[in-house]
Amino acid sequence: MTLAWAYVGLRVVHSLVQATVNIILLRFAVFALASVVLAGLAIRAAWAVLG
């Protein structure tokens, strides 16, 4: 559950960065971190199904 909320929070931060300062490197860093969290969610889901 924590990973899911972390992903949502990071996507909100990404949107806020895009709508306000729009610094590409900052936006990319937040997006990349959100992608890592999403990968973690996918791995946990696969583990739950296959393990």
Description:
The structure is a single chain. The longest helix is centred in the last third of the chain and has 27 residues, at 24-50. 88% of the residues lie in helices and 0% in strands. The mean pLDDT is 97. The chain is built from two helices and no strands. The protein has helices spanning 2-19, 24-50. It has 51 residues and is an all-alpha fold.
List keywords for this structure.
51 residues, mainly alpha, 88% helix, elongated
Mean pLDDT level: 97
Number of strands: 0
Shape annotation:
elongated
Order of helices and strands: HH
| Helix/strand structural class | mainly alpha
Percent of residues in β-strands: under 5%
Radius of gyration: 13 Å
What is the count of helical runs? 2
Could you estimate the helical fraction of the residues in percent? over 70%
Poorly predicted ranges: none
Main β-sheet: number of strands, strand sense, barrel status? Answer: none
Q: Give the termini separation.
A: 19 Å
What is the fold's blueprint, element by element?
Elements lengths: L1 H18 L4 H27 L1
Give a short summary of the structure.
By secondary structure, the protein is mainly alpha-helical. The protein contains two helices and no strands.
